[in-house]
Specification:
- There is one protein chain.
- This protein is α+β, with helices and mostly antiparallel strands.
- It folds into three domains: 2-102; 146-203, Helix Hairpins (Orthogonal Bundle); 214-357, Histidine kinase-like ATPase, C-terminal domain (Heat Shock Protein 90, 2-Layer Sandwich), CATH 3.30.565.10.
- Helices cover 61% and strands 13% of the residues.
- The chain contains nine helices and seven strands.
- The protein has helices spanning 2-45, 51-99, 118-165, 172-203, 216-225, 228-233, 252-268, 300-303, 325-336, and strands at 212-215, 237-242, 247-250, 275-283, 286-293, 339-345, 349-357.
- A five-stranded mixed β-sheet has the order 2-4-5-7-6, covered by helices on one side.
- Strand 6 (339-345) and strand 7 (349-357) form a beta hairpin.
- Helix 1 runs antiparallel to helix 2, helix 2 (51-99) runs parallel beside helix 3 (118-165) and helix 7 packs antiparallel against helix 9 (325-336).
- The relative contact order is 0.07.
Length: 364
């Protein structure tokens, strides 16, 4: 109640101030005009005004000033109500909803007498801010849900196998098997945390590219050879078509994250006896890298989301991974200024294409 009374009193005080302001302005302008008019008329016509005439004119002028001031105050009040107070109320109401966590709120077009007013700009900025916050809230919710799942799984495995390792009289073969499971789960957990930290640094620009000129073909071969033990174990066929002396100017350490993730996925999702292909070719001012496999392929609905954080095509999370690898790849490519795309057919395999700006022979 006290708040309502204060609000009403403030409103009346504001109206009174507006009225006084208009009264003083009208009194000054009309008085100056009247004095100038009477003085000019007296000089031209030679008519002299009596004291009675002047007093009557002053009274009439004073009443006119009072009426005109009231009229201007009323008109200004109506203008403020529709052009200021109403849009302000809409913006404040939307802001209050947003402070309560409702990021779906939007301000409708503010249709008023002045459709090009600044409030339309404010409303547009507010709606775009609400949309961004809504997207961030969705990402935050998904992040928490996925991190919880990815942390819970290896921790549960470690806990279960750790309990089994405490069994008295456990056979040596079982002990080694359980210890290996604990080690694999701890490695998976460490990889998850490492990738989260890397992705966080990349998204917050805490990692800045250390640009250098180097042979991209050599780097690709070195990264591919680091998976030699894995592809030999799965008896995979490796086919390479790498053009020599394709130079790029980029951060070699960041790009190695890209190649390692792409090769790791190709090996992981290609069945035993399958084939992995790697090609590097110059194309105008660009270097085109393609990593292909004959694995399970990617459905179209999955392909639209594979570069999103924590997204995995396998909803059951049965395959090893944490859904951060390709998100890292995409972020690195964006920072370097390249482009990445994927084409795939279910049951036939996938091809990832990376386009990087190369350094031509004529550049210093």
């Amino acid at each position: 109640m006290n708040g309502e009374k204060k609000k009403k009193r403030s409103g009346w005080i504001f109206i009174l101030r507006q009225y006084v302001s208009f009264f003083l302005l009208m009194a000054f302008v009309i008085s100056c005009c009247l004095v100038l008019f009477l003085d000019t008329m007296t000089r031209i016509t030679g008519i002299s005004l009596t004291q009675e005439n002047i007093e009557l004119a002053a009274k009439v002028t004073f009443l006119n000033v009072l009426l005109l001031s009231a009229l201007c105050t009323a008109i200004d009040g109506i203008r403020r109500k529709y052009m200021v107070e109403r849009p302000v109320r809409q913006i404040v109401k939307a802001a209050e909803k947003m402070t309560k966590g409702d990021f779906s709120v939007r301000i409708p077009p503010l249709r008023g007498i002045d459709s090009t007013g600044g409030f339309d700009v404010i409303a547009d900025c507010f709606n775009r801010m609400a949309q961004e916050l809504s997207g961030m809230e969705t990402l935050r919710t998904d992040f928490i849900a996925n991190v919880s799942h990815e942390l819970k799984t290896p921790l549960s495995v470690m806990q279960n196998y750790g309990t089994m390792l405490q069994q008295p009289g456990l056979a040596e073969e079982k002990r080694i098997e359980y210890a290996k499971a604990v080690r694999e789960s701890s490695r998976r957990l460490a990889d998850l945390i490492t990738n989260i930290l890397k992705l966080n640094k990349l998204e917050n620009q805490q990692i800045y590219p250390n640009v250098e000129t180097y042979d991209l073909g050599e780097q690709l071969c070195q990264c591919l050879l680091s998976f030699e033990n894995v592809w030999e174990k799965k008896e995979l066929e490796i086919e390479t078509d790498i053009q020599e002396t394709v130079m790029v100017e980029a951060d070699s350490e960041l790009l190695s994250l890209v190649w390692n993730n792409l090769f790791s996925n190709a090996v992981k999702f290609t069945d035993k006896g399958g084939k992995i292909s790697l090609s590097l070719k110059p194309q105008g001012e660009f270097a085109i890298v393609q990593v292909s496999d004959t694995g399970c392929g990617i459905p179209a609905d999955v392909g639209r989301h594979i570069f999103e954080k924590f997204y995995q095509g396998d909803a059951s999370h049965a395959t090893q991974g944490n859904g951060l690898g390709l998100a890292l790849v995409k972020r690195v490519i964006d920072i370097i200024g390249g482009d990445i795309s994927v084409s795939s057919q279910v049951g036939k395999g996938s091809t990832f294409t990376v386009k990087l700006r190369r350094k031509s022979d004529g550049e210093v």
